[in-house]
Write a structure and sequence with these properties.
Elements: E1 11-14, E2 20-23, H1 26-30, E3 35-42, E4 51-57, E5 71-75, E6 81-83, E7 93-99, E8 108-113, E9 126-131, E10 137-143, E11 147-154, E12 163-171, E13 174-178, E14 184-186, E15 198-199, E16 202-206, E17 215-219, E18 235-240, E19 249-256, E20 259-262, H2 266-272, H3 283-286, H4 292-295, E21 303-309, E22 315-320, E23 323-328, E24 340-343, E25 349-352, H5 357-360, E26 370-377, E27 382-388, E28 401-402, E29 407-411, E30 417-421
Antiparallel strand pairs: 1-2, 3-4, 4-5, 5-6, 7-8, 8-9, 9-10, 11-12, 12-13, 12-15, 13-14, 16-17, 17-22, 18-19, 18-21, 19-20, 22-23, 24-25, 25-26, 26-27, 28-29, 29-30
The chain binds calcium ion (4 copies).
Length: 422
């Protein structure tokens, strides 16, 4: 389990009686200052035991700050992890996913990043690091894929090579196909996933419709949300340095009743962008603002990125020939955001949700604390049952993972782990 700022990561070893025993590791204690946001086990040095990659994050630090550097810990074979002195990405990371994508026998590493601290809306760099036979890493890809929240390597097209699936905020679900020699090509549109831009926070894969190809379940913000989003009326975000003070700001517009309105109220926009004070002396001058052009006539000159949201529902994407068939999850599943999904071997789907910071600003969306979906129907693409996991409403669940004997573990803040028995 990763730790927050100034909390060391913790390793618990499972015992035969079902207990977990904490193992104190000096290198974890020494690295307590880092905020651990994601981790993956991989055999980095190819010696047969599982080593550890930890992604560092934190939105209080500037990009490239030492405290945002990722870490690799090598396993000595007995569960003692020692940090390897290697230069790794220094970004506000969000996720790590491993696979030997170039088939040289050594597992490689995708590290996704969600945001550039202080520059909400801009796409940070994400990385694919090629494992140099356990001696180090080299950057195979360094791309601004978007505000990445989750990623999985899996063979999407059945050619035996792992492809990369990722999702994020203000993004489509991206699919990068691997040609087998380590060259990745984006094929999102050919899977029918283009134009479904959401606040996707997680993806999970399983062959739900039993055609031999992976299907995707993707968690989104849900419909209990201030914004409506559709193809014809997307939520729009313009990111740029509109007042030319050297920092970018996001300007968000959403469709409300019969027209677009700014997400931020006048007072907030003026405090963020004091140059607007002259333009909007009272509320009646502000109420006709319907787009970014009404705030800044020449906004295009200072625009860096433009993004939109067209889909806020959590969805199932079923393999269907080459493209996916999209089916929204049920009523309960849309009542809040879904932040982590776990699919067990019997294709029961477990998920947890928690209100995001900018969602809670709008006073919405904490209804989804955790549920179990079962009884998948291949024809309709829907689940017959949705049952509450009965988690306390005050917790902020991070994940749900299965353990032995029908137990499910739900880690939350400050080392609390809730256990659900099924
Ligand atoms: Ca190893
Ligand atoms: Ca490799
Ligand atoms: Ca493939
Ligand atoms: Ca399938």
């Amino acid at each position: 389990m990763g730790g927050g700022r100034n909390q060391p990561a913790q390793l618990y070893l499972g015992a035969a009686n079902g207990a977990f025993n904490k193992k104190i590791l000096p290198d974890f204690e020494r690295d307590a200052a880092y905020e651990d946001v994601s981790a993956a086990l991989l055999d980095f040095d190819g010696d047969g035991d599982r080593d550890l990659y930890v992604v560092s994050g934190g939105s209080d630090n500037k990009e490239l700050d030492k405290i945002l550097e990722d870490r690799i810990y090598l396993n000595n074979g007995n569960g003692v992890f020692k940090r390897l002195p290697l230069s790794l990405p220094h970004t506000n990371g969000s996720v790590v996913a491993v696979a030997d994508f170039d088939k040289d026998g050594y597992e490689d590493i995708f590290v996704g990043a969600r945001s550039i601290p202080g520059f909400y809306g801009l796409s940070p760099y994400s990385f694919i690091l090629r494992n140099k036979k356990g001696q180090g890493v080299e950057i195979a890809y360094k791309e601004r894929y978007g505000m990445v929240t989750d990623a999985i390597w899996t063979d999407m097209n059945g050619d035996g090579y792992p492809d990369l699936v990722m999702c994020g905020d203000w993004m489509e679900i991206l699919i990068l196909e691997n040609d087998g020699s380590g060259v990745l090509t984006e094929k999102t549109a050919s899977y029918g996933l283009a134009g479904k831009n959401g606040l996707w926070s997680c993806i999970a894969l399983a062959d739900l419709n039993e055609d031999g190809r992976p299907d995707i379940i993707a968690g989104n913000a849900g419909l209990n949300f201030k914004w409506n989003a559709s193809d014809s009326m997307p939520v729009k975000m313009y990111v740029g340095d509109f007042d030319k003070n050297g920092a970018t700001e996001p300007l968000i517009f959403y469709h409300y009743l019969r027209r677009y309105i700014p997400f931020a109220p006048m007072s907030q926009l003026i405090s963020q962008l004091p140059v607007l004070r002259k333009k909007f002396t009272d509320y009646s001058s502000f109420r006709n603002v319907q787009g970014v052009g009404d705030l800044f006539e020449n906004y295009k000159e200072n625009l860096v990125e433009e993004k939109q949201l067209t889909e806020l529902r959590s969805m199932v994407f079923l393999s269907n020939g080459s493209a996916f068939r999209a089916v929204p999850l049920g009523f309960y599943e849309q009542s809040g955001d879904i932040t982590h999904i776990w699919i067990d071997s019997e294709k029961n789907v477990f998920y947890v949700g928690s209100s995001r910071e900018f969602v809670s600003e709008m006073g919405a969306a904490d209804a989804n604390k955790g549920r179990k979906l079962s009884g998948f129907d291949k024809n309709t693409g829907t689940f017959a049952r949705s049952e509450s996991l009965g988690l306390p409403v005050s917790i902020k669940p991070k994940k749900i993972v299965s353990g032995p004997s029908g137990r499910y573990y739900i880690p939350a803040n400050n080392w609390w782990v809730y256990v659900v028995q099924q």
